[in-house]
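[job 4471] stage=fold_predict status=RUNNING
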Amino acid sequence: MTSMLTKIVGFTVAYYDWVRAGRPKRDPLWVAELWDICSQCPHFDPRQITPFGRGACDICGCHISPDHTENFNKLVWPTQSCPDSPPHWTAAVDGNPEKHGCK
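[job 4471] inference complete, writing structure tokens
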């Protein structure tokens, strides 16, 4: 389980990176593909409650969901990548899912 301080710092850095990049968003189909990956991951906890909803990664503590309209869903921000080692998917501000571990 990720500590609250780690979650706050991680979210702040991720949010800053996203805003600095101009608040880009992944396409809904891409979010769905990432959701398929994350929802099957042993580090995903669907019961974990975050300030933005239910469902989070146990490694970074970020909220993740299949909802592509949520602004605070890590899967929506192309500036973010999977925190596992090795990552299951990577950041992709260039908009090309094929280059970043997606179909």
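[job 4471] summary: The helical segments are 4-20, 28-39.
[job 4471] exit 0
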